[in-house]
Write a structure and sequence with these properties.
The chain has 9 helices and 9 strands. The chain is α/β, with parallel strands linked by helices and about 230 residues long. Strand 4, helix 6 and strand 5 (about 120-125) form a beta-alpha-beta unit. The longest helix has 12 residues, at about 135-145. It is globular, with a radius of gyration of 18 Å.
Length: about 230
């Protein structure tokens, strides 16, 4: 099985929250281009709440022109087994992506697949009750030549990818702030472990400080140690 490199990229507060942590001046989006991703991967919950203006050129002004004039832009892939996203007429207008692909499963309603076809949206069927992410990533590699995937989503999709051993690199931009809260709004949302087995070891490869007190931490996942922790 040939899979693309999968990179998690998150903006977090010092206490690890991904909500209310987009402080002004964050280099989060500035760093996006460094990954040279072929695909931005997002979950349906993230896309359902995304800001998708009907007139993005007016909403984003100079940023819109900058992105539209880029020589290459990533595609967007949305994990949506339940067929919840019906905003493709808006998604296709946004400057961040050159095209969109939906990752579905055998359980995705046939009516939604028909809607995707009406919208001219390509989709991949992988898995039975939910999307088989490993199989979907393999199709992205084989059918679309995808080599690098940047995950731009919340902790639930991150958690599924991490527990499945599909992530190669974890990037976090730490903002100088504390958010607090009791809901699981963190980089990695998954059932609690009952032992040290399942802890994912990381190797720090890069640290960079930005103006305003932001810190970028870049890690690779040591899959040899990850495997030894789970055996």
């Amino acid at each position: 099985m040939t899979l693309p490199k999968v990179i998690l990229h998150m903006g977090l507060s010092v206490d690890g929250r991904d909500d209310w942590s987009a402080a002004p001046g964050s280099p989060y989006y500035e760093l996006v281009g460094r990954f040279q991703a072929d695909i931005d991967l997002s979950g349906s919950k993230t896309m359902a709440s995304a800001f998708l203006p009907d007139n993005p050129q007016e909403a984003f002004a100079d940023v819109y022109d900058f992105w539209m004039n880029m020589p290459t832009r990533p595609k967007l892939a949305i994990v949506d087994s339940k067929g919840q996203i019906d905003r493709y007429h808006l998604i296709k207008k946004q400057p961040w992506w050159q095209d969109v692909i939906t990752l579905c499963s055998a359980a995705t309603p046939k009516s939604h697949l028909a809607y995707l076809e009406e919208q001219g949206v390509e989709y991949i069927l992988a898995g039975e009750d939910q999307v088989d992410l490993a199989a979907a990533l393999q199709v992205l590699n084989e059918r679309y030549g995808v080599k690098v995937v940047r995950v731009d989503s919340g902790g639930i999709l991150n958690g599924v990818l991490l527990r499945a051993g599909l992530v190669d690199e974890v990037n976090v931009v730490i903002g100088p702030e504390l958010v607090g809260g009791s809901s699981p709004r963190s980089l990695f949302v998954a059932p609690d472990l009952t032992s040290a087995e399942g802890v994912i070891p990381l190797q720090l490869t890069h640290v960079e400080e930005f103006k305003g007190g932001f810190v970028w931490l870049r890690y690779t996942i040591d899959k040899s140690l990850e495997h030894s922790n789970q055996t």
